[in-house]
What we know:
13 helices; single chain; 286 residues; mainly alpha
Amino acid sequence: MVLESLIKTEKLEEQPYFILIGTVLYVIVGSIVTLLLSPFFGPEAISVLFVVLVAFPALPQILSLFVLAEIEKEKDAILGSTTLGRNYTMISILMLFFVGLIFSFTFAFLVIPQTQATKMFTLEIKEAQAVSTTFTGQFTYQTPNSFQFVFEEIFFHNLWVLLAMFALSAVYGAGAVLTLTWNASVIGLFLANAGLSLVTKNAGNTALITGIASSFLGLLPHGVFEIAGYCCGVLAGGLISVTIVRKAYNKPVFFNLTSDIAKITALSIVFIAVGAIIESYAIVGG
């Protein structure tokens, strides 16, 4: 495909921020194609199609990065370096990919005509309504707010999301991209709605930008850790998938690979826990 060949995998390793350009292109093209196909599909089907069309062109880059990460471990164990240091570039690319998609989806929801946007984000809207949490850390509880109660609610909810992303990435390599794209679309919808809610109260583009910015800043303290946790989980799952496909379990590097996978998985849970602590503290007020 022309779109997927615009950003080379080698370029991403050297300059990870180039993935941000890719996310904008993927969402723009995905939006256009989805709008053209929208009359032929129902709301839920078109919502799924939108996510798939955005994720599809990113698959070669992300999966190639998993393969390159595994190959580099075969060539050089990088003894003495930390697990995070060895995988820093890969984690950075995944985080930039995730954040880039969030803002691209936010922009898409705002510029696409409301009727069409609602149809394209049907499943995301249902997801936001189905759970008791939004990604700003604003929860609605029927019981008194205690730090332990709020922490457990947030941590286990995010842990289930992490496990789903890990499992899909491990069993189905493309699941890494699909799960990141799906979660980014949900957060993007939230940011867009946050901006629109202020516009209804205070007309003007300034209110829209203020709403999006304030919501993003509210997400930032705990969101950084949660996104890092999700990306580490996706990386660990992706490495498992590549290890099996490339039969690395028959190679001397297998021990280093399994060690890194185990450490990255543990690190993802730590990040999720830290994010939950920060979010809980913000809600309960210490």
